[in-house]
Write a structure and sequence with these properties.
single chain; 51-stranded mixed sheet; about 10% helix; Translocation and assembly module TamB
Length: about 850
Amino acid sequence: MKKILQFLQIFLIVVMAFVLAEHFSHYLQTLITSQIRQSGIECQLTIKNIHTLTCKNIRYHQKPLAKSLSLTWRYAPLLQGTAYIENITIKDLNINTLLSIQLSQNKEQKSSKLLVKPFIKKAYINAFYSYKGTHRLTLQAKDISLQKAHISSLHIVSPYAKVKAFGIYSNQTLQLQGDIEDLTYQMIRAATIPFIIQADPKKIAFSLIPDKFFIYNYRFAKNKITGKYNYQSLFIQADTSTIYKKSQAVLHIDAIYDKTLHYEANATINNERYNIPINPLAYQKLYAYIKGDLEQTDAKIFNQFISIDIKRQKDSATFKTSPIQTHDLNSSLPKDMYLQLIGSANPDEQNLSILSNYVEGEFSHAKKQIQGTLEFKKRYKDFHLPALGPVTIEANLATKSFFLQAKNIILEVLQKSATLKIDDALCLAQKHDQLLSFSCNINHLQNLTKTISQIYPIPQLSVELAVNASGEYSIDTQNFTLHSKVQPQNRVSPLEYLEYKLHGNPKQIILDYYALLLKDHGFYATKPSIIELKNDGIYVQEFWIEDKVKISGFYNFSTTLGKFQIKAKDYRYSSIEGDIRTKIDIDAQIKQNKIETTGTLTLFGGVITYSPKKERIVKDEDIIVIDELQSPQENYFLKNVAINIKIDAKKPILYKIPDLYALTSPDLLLYKEFGKQLQLLGMIKIFKGVYHLPNQENIEISSSVIDFYGPVENPLLDLHLITRKDRYIIYITVAGELENPVVNFDSEPYLKSNEILSLLAFGTSSKSLISAALGGDKLSSMLSNLFIKDLVANFGIKLDTLTLLTSANRIGFEIGKRVSDKITVIYKNDEISTLIIRYQISKKVESDIIFGPQKSGAHLYYREMR
């Protein structure tokens, strides 16, 4: 508005310059008379001839008025009452001095009664005006009289713009039209602004129609500005639209300047849809109403979701939003949540209050210092934010420092460093030019996860780990490096050691190396693993395991589809469980939550030294189940994983533990459908083997087969065993299912089954073979419960229950004989021999009477019976 007034003022000066110049030229004609001295004007007058007059260094009351004035006239028109001036030239006319000339009323009246009227054929005026800089103008006109004039050109050059115009003066009305070019005034910029001005003794009307102009970075287009000035009040109307990035506003402005400024404005703001989690109807269309003057402004921005009231009074302002229902903005936010913002500002201080039923906060900004507090009232989803306690925030804009403190959490950011402390975990960061280095030391990861879980539920660690990490990040290139070590703080941790180093950028991560020791299993890689991060997903170019196994593939976030390949030409797995060489060729496809794996494992030979767990209870279908088994819960593996992997061997595999030796060859299919249990199909051939019994004859294993038809835990057996006792060769054949096998005996020389069992049980030694077997966990690990039940039954004992037990590196057993409907006699031999008489009182209540060398007594039990 101020700029428009300045240009209007310049246009007014032009008009006055023209009018006064006309009077001035008429007044110069009177300089020949004695009245020149009385007007206050002085100059060096030179009359070259009767047609030419020159006046230099013209001054008005000692103030410079013009550098020179020259005119040429004709005498002949004087006979017709006209002073005909051929041309007039005025150089360096000082408009400031010109405006100060005061002609008396008598002189004006006398001038208007002159019988000779002036007429100027051509006029050239070069002038300047001083107002916040020097404004220079050049006026060329022709056919000038008291009633009419043609302005050929008007050029104005000011510090803010250039003006080119032309027009006509007729019947005391001046009309100009032209362009304002290269406008630059404070925050306003415009290349070209066409204008039209019409001025008469009562008013000045103008119209500006710029194609576009800029205020700050806002571009205004489709502009039309009109106004009137009656020499006392200025009336302006403006219609425009502005586009800033993805926003467009259409404005209509009405303004009146009458010693003070009053204005009203209406705006409609349209925003494009943003990719943000806010209801687009909340911001795509807004309305604004503004009303005010130089002292006060009231504004309101609103739509159906939000309303903001803004008030300005002199140098202070306040704003207040209506209570915002946040669920209307984002449906994932709680339905009962509301938010309201209240703020105030003056040149010295700004304040902001946050009111909500979920969080409250107070912030203030003064002298480049920001201070505030936040207090959370309710949980938000899984975030238990009230556990943070009062949160204190401080910031210094001058030193670029920031400080945040909550319960067990301290964050401090300085100009070139930052510190984060959670419990005793400490992370540091330092900035050097464009390089950011950081380090993190966590002595008790278990305590750290416990503290974080009070705010957000994360998995709790059952073991204590120490983590050390360090790295660098380049701000300009976004490249980073990271080196980390993880070590357990106690012996119960399955993770024994982890170390890795990686580098990359937001688009690619390269794992330089890693070393992992987990439950006596070691994994490492010195070949770089390359992972690309794209907008649509993760692309694994190569991920190495022990520099032999290569994993590659991709996973798409939007489609939830993925495909990975696991390949190795000759991978050697070596640990305390064995040493195996294998070729791996496996494909895995991911679709949503489903994973389907197919491929082959081809074994090139090796040795397996894995021993089964020593502590277990093996049950068959005749065992009394005391506690009812719980049905297995459905888990992710059961529901979402399908497997089809073939396992075969090019060379035999040696199964070797201290007491057992067997040469085997697998030909298996590991198979699983979605929602079904894992199955094993195929067979394991046993070429030969031997089982060593301490102080007893060995058991030889001849050509045998274990067939798998589905359930992993219950294969079909075809085992052929040979042992020697005294002068007899005893052949044992085990066939049928693992859980219910059929055991046959034969011998050379021939013996009956009872004689073979008697020989095996008692023999000639004080310690029989069966007692040795029942006391040797290695035999049980191989034969499990394959033939114990039939072995004991062949002694003529019909058992109702039998359970094979292990404890303290030895095998024991529990056998029972039901003597009536309610009484069962049980003999238990594990660490000691115990006799138990079990009496069933009811379906769910029974008692045990125990007789043993170390303890005896009676117990009453409530049991869920099968």
